[in-house]
Specification:
The strands form two sheets. This protein has an eight-stranded mixed β-sheet. By secondary structure, it is an alpha+beta fold. The chain has three domains: about 100 residues, Methane Monooxygenase Hydroxylase, Chain G, domain 1; about 150 residues, Alpha-Beta Plaits (2-Layer Sandwich); about 70 residues, 2-Layer Sandwich (Double Stranded RNA Binding Domain), CATH 3.30.160. About 5% of the residues have low confidence. It contains eleven helices and eleven strands.
């Protein structure tokens, strides 16, 4: 581990020098790339500096214990010795965690898609609840939330809804939300007060750039249509909405939220790149992941990652066995604790695998 830390420190010093080079400063792409790498290496280097300082402290204390003729000094050194050893153990664990390779997509913005699953009207209402939960969470995080497209199911529900979240390390947090979310509650239309179970699926896609995935324009079929939603006369009378079909894969995306056809096309292309990128990653990691993804997208009530039980004010994440009794706060955007616990669990699995 120490050899690896020395390599990281040397690379950090090299990048620090390069960031002051006029040629690098004048090359925006290179500057952006090096700045990101510098930012990623900074916490490792700072932790390593604390580790080396603790090692020096330990060596100094041992020198006093073994070489000093002053009994009082020896006693003081012995008293501090265990504390410094414990500090070194903590720093070693921190460094092991920091050295685990990060998901290169963690720093990306995301495109999220929520679809109602089993449960009819109640599932559509739950899809709307999930959208509000995530948009409020984004607001609390200081992220930007932009609605891309939706299919209205009436009474405030959505058959499906797509939106983007932009900010710092958005995918690193939101990727754990992909899967089937199940709700248990009494619908407003239920006269006998019976609890119904419904489901909605959530897909979280990293937003990718043009350089990340190449799309042949001749593979695209573009259609325009009237938005037919809120936004005034222009939205309803002019064909500003855009639907793009990627013919080789059959992937279809649409965007209708902007007043300009050009802006809707740009957003639809972002959605298409994200969908194709996900398909590319699935094909690279193999059939097991593809099967898991197909299960996630089925929307069946049995394929669940999380359950929201309204009568008991309870939320359970089935992947890590975590149950919280503050559903009313979570559904209003306070989903941070759940996400943090999922991050910790994922990190623990990575540490276990690295040993």
């Amino acid at each position: 581990m120490l050899d690896r830390l020395e390599e990281v420190r040397e690379r950090y010093q090299e990048i620090t020098a390069l960031l002051g080079d006029p040629e690098v400063v004048g090359n925006q792409d290179r500057l952006r790339e090096l700045s990101k790498e510098h930012k990623d290496l900074t916490p490792i280097v700072k932790a390593y500096e604390r580790y080396r300082k603790a090692q020096d402290e330990l060596a100094g204390l041992k020198e006093i214990i073994n070489g000093s003729s002053d009994p009082e000094m020896k006693q003081l050194a012995l008293g501090e010795l265990e504390e410094v050893r414990e500090k070194l153990v903590r720093l070693e664990e921190e460094l092991k965690t920091l050295l685990i390779p990060k998901d290169p997509n963690d720093s990306r913005n995301v495109i999220m898609e929520i679809r109602s699953g089993t449960g009819g009207e109640e599932a559509a209402l739950f899809a709307a609840d999930l959208y509000r939960m995530y948009s409020r969470f984004a607001e609390l995080q200081g992220w930007k939330c932009e609605l891309l497209d939706f299919s209205d199911a009436g009474k405030g529900g959505f058959k499906e809804i797509s939106f983007s979240l932009g900010g710092q390390d958005v995918y690193g947090s939101m990727k754990f939300e992909s899967g089937v979310h199940r709700v248990q509650r009494v619908p407003e239309t239920e006269a006998q007060g019976r609890v119904h179970t419904s489901a909605a699926t959530v897909a979280v896609l990293p937003e990718v750039e043009t350089i990340d995935i190449e799309i042949n324009p001749s593979d695209l079929q573009m259609d325009t249509f009237r938005s037919g939603g809120k936004g005034g006369q222009n939205v309803n009378k002019v064909e500003t909405a855009v639907r793009i079909t990627h013919m080789p894969t059959g992937v279809v995306v649409a965007c209708r939220q902007e007043r300009s056809q050009f802006q809707n096309r740009e957003r639809a292309m972002k959605m298409l790149r994200a969908r194709l990128y996900e398909m590319m990653i699935e094909s690279q990691v193999g059939d097991v992941a593809a099967l898991r993804k197909s299960m996630v997208k089925s929307g069946d009530r049995s394929d669940k990652i999380r359950t929201y039980n309204f009568p008991q004010n309870r939320v359970t994440d089935h992947r890590i066995g975590l149950t919280l009794y503050n559903l009313s706060e979570i559904i209003n955007g306070q989903v941070g604790e759940l996400i943090e616990q999922l991050k910790i669990a994922a990190m623990a699995e990575k540490l276990k695998a690295s040993k």
